[in-house]
Amino acid sequence: MLAPAKINLFLHVGGVKENGRHDLDSLVMFAGPEASDRVEARRASEASFTLDGPFSAPDLASPENLVLKTIAACQARGFKVPPLAITLYKHIPVAAGLGGGSADAGAMLRQLVRIGTLTEQVGWTLSTGLGGDVPAAYTSQACRMQGEGEIIRRVADLPDLPTLLINPRLPCPTGPVFQAFDQTGTGPGLSSLDLPVFETPPEMIAWLRTHTRNDLESPAIGLVPQIRDVLDSLDTMTGCSLARMSGSGASCFGLFETRREMMSAAETLKARHPGWWIAPTLLKGG
Fold this sequence. Notes:
Elements: E1 2-4, E2 6-16, E3 22-30, E4 36-43, E5 48-52, H1 66-76, E6 84-89, H2 100-114, H3 120-127, H4 134-139, E7 143-147, E8 151-154, E9 161-167, H5 174-183, H6 201-211, H7 217-223, H8 226-235, E10 240-245, E11 252-256, H9 259-272, E12 277-283
Helix pairs in contact: 1-2, 2-3, 5-7
């Protein structure tokens, strides 16, 4: 089952609350198979967990892996999870602002629904306790994400967006980025923002560029200056109408009006920066 990367087309962040967390407002879309992990689970005589793929690493097999935490959360609620042979294929960079771990948890929950261990509603309830991005990853459809990430409203009829994803292969852990955000003040904060109806990608991109932002972009660049290099490189590409960081970084995206221009930019940047992870994809509007 695919576990697609999450792209925060905008991310507005409120001030820190008493519980140490933040309210947010974000429009989220999901990548295609070119930028997705994959979670496979089949019934077996005994449980096992295997990692594979270009971003697999031994430390990802710890109990803190969100796939294993998903299984543990089910068992803690009294659900009988049959022995499963689980393989996680990691194709999304880790600590990259693309919600890879949350995507894996969402896919694991959908697998458990598929085999009959959970109902869809129980899967949703469990997702809200596994992390701020997991509810959106569980739906894996374009949505507006608010509150601490647990308020999810699906958004229909958005145009598909040709998108170039880039990560400089540098980690940018979420915690330090939020700490840097808190130290610099709360920024513009949260305000009411109505989502218009968009007929075409250019119309949607123009609205995003004019009315939205990523409040974590500047704090993240302070911690990982190479993010600015990625954004500057995207800005120079013909047809890139908006370059922005996703989530808490370090991954960035460029929105293009046509697939042809996106693919041309991908080839150019792969030649210039062979060490970067570069994935051209189509964000699905639903």
